[in-house]
Every structure is written in C-alpha cells, then in structure tokens.
Amino acid sequence: MMKTLIIVSHPEIDNSQTQQFLHEGSKKKGVLWHHIEGLEKIDVLKEQKLLTEADRIIFQFPLYWYSSPSGLKKWEDLVLTRNFIYGDKNYPLEGKEFGLVVTTGLPLKDFKKGASENFSLDELMTPYRAIADKAKMIVLPIFPISQFWYMTESVQMALLVDYQRYLKQEMPDTLQNRQKWFENELQQLDLDLNIKDKKITEMILTSFTERIEELNQLNETLEIIKENDEN
Question: What is the pTM of this model?
Fold first, then answer.
C-alpha cells in the first residue's frame, strides 16, 4: 500500500476551516497527517525517518507572503540538511513523489502574469520544487485551493474527492488511474458499510464497472477507426 506523508504547516490550524476540512479528508489508510507546529520539538532523525518511509510526500500550507508559514521554513532548515538530501551522492528520497497543497485567500485567476499578483503559483513554489529536484524526487503538479469558505457544499465535496485522489491515486492523473482509484474506493467502502448500505454500494460499483467496460469498448472502436483512416 502506498504511504503518503502530509507535512502540514499552519500556525493557527484549529481556527482554519480549510485545514480542518482537509484533515477529515486525509483520514485514509496509508496517510499520515503531520502538523509540524504541533510538535513539542523537531526531532531531526525522527522527521527524516518519516520522510524515508513515505512513498509520496506532500507539503501543505496556506500561502503567506508568496511562501509558506515560518514553521515550515524552520522545519526545512533543521530536517532537510545537505547531507540528508544529496550528501556524498546519497539520495534517500530518490524516486519518491513530492506534491504541494497550497491554500489561498485570493482566486486562482489573480496568480498569473498581468493579474493582481503577477506571478503563477508554479513560479512562487519554485524553491520547494527545486529542493525536490535536488533530492531526485518525482514532482507532482501543485494542488491549489482558493477561497474555500466561498465554495458551495457540492463544490467542497468535489474538492474532497480530488484531494483524496491527490493523496493516494497513482500518478500521472490519467483517466485509467482515476478509474482504478474510484473502483478501489468503492470496494473499500463496501467493506465498511452495514448490509443495507452495502446493497446500494454494490449497485454503484456495478454501474461504475459497466461504465468502464463501455469506455474501454469505445476506446477500442476509436483505435480501429484511427487505424483504418491511416491505411
């Protein structure tokens, strides 16, 4: 099972509606929520061990002056030492996946050239991705969350599903990998429900599986048409 480590940085996390929502969504098998401001002290060796044991490492924080809260910077300076990241040509994090979940109080449209912020989130997050690149990690696309408190309940629920996929779904984010994730989630849900709810889940799973088969047949048909056109 994939192990995902979420390094969460937020100085007032109990007052953050967004982080509390994400915390509930992160309660999945193989996912560890690790709030660094909540640590009594930063045990460097213990933190490094958590990193080496994870398959996917995610930094999660609100955008503070185009960067993270100071707590994450302090943690980085202590834990991500040169010797640990790449010293003596040893790369303990090589091949692990690295992602960023960044929350903002501004709409995403403001983060682009010519808009109010004039820089994209990709540009602003370059230092973190540079560290991951130095460690020879696989860098995932950023997962941005903007103005959570303005979202409708249905939009929040869609966000929750996408967030959980970001934590556990096999990457890249292809249609096939999405299908596999949804099917696994429905099967796992089936194990946790009572008899009445299981019947409903079985119906959903059957319908979902049928849709996958229909899509696969459609893709096969399109491939045949494509080959005939080329000939």
Answer: 0.83
